[in-house]
Amino acid sequence: MLELTDKTAALTPQTAQMGEGKSYYLYTFGCQMNEHDSEVIAGILESTGFTAAAGPEEADLIVINTCAVRRKPEEKVGALLGMLQPLKEKKEDLFIAVGGCMTQQEEIAAYIKKRFRHVNLVFGTHSLPRFPQLLEKAMSSRKTVVDIEEYTDSRGNLPISRQDRFKAWLPVIYGCNNFCSYCIVPYVRGRERSRPMEEILTEARSLARAGYLELTLLGQNVNSYGQDLPERCDFADLLWELNRVDGLRRIRFMTSHPKDLSPRLIEVMARGEKICEHLHLPVQSGSNRILKLMNRRYTRERYLELVRSLKENIPGVAITSDIIVGFPGETEEDFQDTLDLVKEVRFDNAFTFIYSPRSGTKAAQMEDVVPRAQKEERLQRLAEIQQEISKEINAELLGKVVEVLVEGRSKNNPEMLTGRTRANKLVHFASTEDLTGRLLPVKISEARAFNLIGEAVSGEEPVNFSG
Ligand code: 5AD
Ligand code: SF4
After folding, report:
1. Is the CB of residue 222 less than 8 Å from the CB of residue 235?
2. CATH assignment of the domain containing 102
3. Which among 133, 144, 315, 451 counts the fewest CB atoms within 10 Å?
4. What local confidence, expressed as pLDDT, does residue 13 receive?
């Protein structure tokens, strides 16, 4: 569904119809913020007449939205650009645009321009409001156009072509001021810029009117929402206001930084009936020494205290995390601290990563003495322990009825529907009917580490909302 907004007017006579009769294909790498940026890119393109192509071969324009957080997604983009070369040779008028976090870095933008001559436009994370003009410029030029200038003004409302009809991403704050020593994000997404509360509420209300049931509020660190706004408000205030929007049934958010998680936010999570009992709270490491080197500005003791408070105040809360192993200088003892913390917290799920040096960050200059094989072995040990814990926690749901928001057919089994519980757990259940977009009670019959199997039950209200 294409949402047109006031900013659609920013299209000039040259750009207003530049996509008429043409189609686009979009590749997206990385986090939810990037997924949403791609919805904005699609929205902008559709507002100028482009339509979505079924595949890259059919498209007149290919856009790649890149991620820079680790090396792997960057390598994938490199491989994809190589793969697209023959396509461009076959189809001379094909346009290729590359943007996002990777290309926001000057050296990488310059490298892509030089190395991949079949790319027509290189743009950064700040370029979206000017995307139509940039594309028009690239289309009428024989040279690669590069735009990675950083802008600090608000992005405003841009057209959005949303992927789903019942759950929506809603960015509340862009950028990050934290400079965790391993992280590239503050360099490629700029400083924190909160959207005005009224702008967010207006978007939330219009989504609710359009039938959306679930919102996921996005930000690199949603907990610092409001600190840069002239009005005095914080993330807890914003959540409370959103909880009052009629028609919405579920509100989620990510990501939270432990150093900014306030008691008021925990209280609002406990009291707001629409606010899901799930918190993604990346710990990154369980060692105080490593946390300090990471510039995380909390200790393991403080983190454990937060977890205790969350569990005490929000019955059945699911806590998930991100953990990095093999940070420069991580000893076996440091790693043991991480394992101990994981066993103590008992995360519902954790995304585990091997540290990947990012050029320009503080950690990239630290001496990295941990051998690769040891990093991989640590990752394996951590993942096994976490998997066991996830399985045990999920097993507690056996026989219980949970509320599932149905997302569609399972990709691996077309006889099953897939959806998520309020705690963000993936549930598969058999159905011949297409119940996409419905909130249903499902009884859990099988529990695994990464998903649950259940049966739809009628006439029974969900008894475990936090499942
Ligand atoms: N190496 C490995 N993992 C990283 N992350 C961020 N930067 C790096 C890096 N350089 C992880 C963190 C973060 C998640 C989004 O990605 O765990 O929370
Ligand atoms: Fe990166 Fe830290 Fe900011 Fe998260 S809070 S985006 S890990 S710098």
Report:
1. yes
2. 3.40.50.2300
3. 315
4. 75
Residues whose CB falls within 8 Å of the CB of residue 189, separated by 6 or more in sequence, listed in order = 33, 101, 104, 125, 174, 175, 176, 220
User: How far is the C-alpha of 24 from the C-alpha of 41, rounded, in Å?
Assistant: 10
Q: Please check whether residue 193 lies inside any domain of the structure.
A: yes
Q: Which of 176, 225, 281 to mutate to test the pocket of ligand 2 (most atoms within 8 A of CB)?
A: 176
Domain with 255 in it: what CATH number?
Answer: 3.80.30.20
For the chain, what is the total number of helices (H) and then of strands (E)?
A: 12, 21
Q: Is the CB of 78 under 6 A from ligand 2?
A: no
State the Cα–Cα distance between residues 425 and 405, nearest whole angstrom.
11
The number of domains in the chain is 3
Question: In order along the chain (467 residues), what is the average pLDDT of each group of 10 residues?
Answer: 54 83 97 97 96 97 97 94 94 95 96 94 94 92 91 79 96 96 96 95 97 97 95 95 98 97 97 98 98 98 98 97 97 98 98 97 95 97 98 98 96 94 97 94 96 86 49
Question: Which residues form the pocket of ligand 1, taking CB atoms under 6 Å from any ligand atom?
Answer: 69-70, 182-183, 282, 284, 322, 324, 353, 355-356, 358
Same domain, 104 and 214: no
Does the bond joining 255 to the residue before it have cis omega, within 30 degrees of 0? yes
Q: What pLDDT is attached to residue 464? A: 46
Residue 22: domain span? 2-147
pLDDT at 387: 98
Ligand 2 pocket member 41 (CB < 6 A): no
Say yes or no: CB of residue 33 within 6 Å of ligand 2.
no
Whose Cα sits closest to atom 1 in ligand 2?
A: 183
> Which ligand has its closest atom nearest to the C-alpha of 69?
1
Structure pTM?
0.94
CA 158 to chain centre: 19
Is 364 inside any structural domain?
Answer: yes
